[in-house]
Amino acid sequence: MTTPATPATAPPVPVAGQRRRKARRRPGLRLYTWLVMAWLLLPIAVMILFGFNDIKGKVNFTWQGFTLTWYEHLFAIPNLTDALVNSLTIALVVAVAATLLGTPIGLALGRYRFRGRGSVDLLLFAAIAAPEIALGAALLSLFIVLGVPRGYGTVVVAHVAFCVPYVAITVRARMAGYDPTLEEAARDLGAGPWTAFRLVTLPMLLPGVASGALLCFALSVDDYVITSFNAGRTVTFPLWVYSASRTGVPPQVNVMGTLIFLGGLLIAGANVLLARHRAV
């Protein structure tokens, strides 16, 4: 006596394969994504292109030929070079200071439950959501009331004030995937509080800390509104470019912008590779 054979069933299609097929059926979404990316990158591409423009006068609005002259004479305008140095050094100081101040805040918000936690959250998001002109005017009023002369130092303080919330929120988001039992295991094995933090907690938070520091650096270099309120006689790169736009922006501005953009890409890429290496 034989039992009837059961019909063979096809093996289930992997979920990844289903997702790939669905993606192929939506070419419009892919085209839309590429169009948005092209629209976002178009100004950067124009800036890079006009860094090679062989202009014959002061106007750098029309393409007149290819040249590497502006890369060879990148620092030919002393005031522009000083403004770039001011922006880079301010951004570096701000990134370090904001990271040191914001990391403990993000660590506390992500690890502990305490009274006033909601108010701290509200304050951080309010500082990010507030218009820059409001924050710049408030800091200007504070410096005037305290009798602090505006200059390099007030720009640093102002940039740190609006960068700390970005670091705190980034580190707090990183804490969402943090496993506290790892630090407890280190403490059980004899590590002190500082040793456990340095060898266990900090390496796990490092991608978030590095992302916050890079974000602060980029925001500081890019800022114009808050800087214009509190700079005094100090001239940064955005302030110089805006003042030069009335008479004609020299091609060295495009070259410096290109180098800043490429430097940011290299640092961001290094951060991604570091995060992947630590994940492995």
Tally of DSSP helical segments: 12
Rounded radius of gyration (Å):
26 Å
The residue ranges in which pLDDT falls below 50 over 5 or more consecutive positions are: 1-5
Largest sheet, strands/sense/barrel: none
Structural class determined from secondary elements: mainly alpha
Relative helix content: over 70%
Q: Let me know the average pLDDT.
A: 84
CATH topology grouping of the domain at 84-237? MetI-like fold
Spatial separation of the terminal alpha carbons: 57 Å
CATH architecture name of the domain at 84-237: Orthogonal Bundle
Number of strands: 0
Write down the secondary-structure element order.
HHHHHHHHHHHH
**Portion in strands:** under 5%
Could you state the CATH homologous superfamily of the domain at 84-237? MetI-like
CATH class of the domain at 84-237: Mainly Alpha
**Based on CA inertia axes, which overall geometry fits?**
globular
Question: Layout of SSEs?
Answer:
Elements: H1 15-24, H2 27-50, H3 69-72, H4 78-111, H5 117-129, H6 132-146, H7 152-175, H8 180-188, H9 193-222, H10 225-230, H11 237-244, H12 251-279
Protein name: ABC transporter permease
Main location: membrane
Family: Belongs to the binding-protein-dependent transport system permease family. CysTW subfamily.
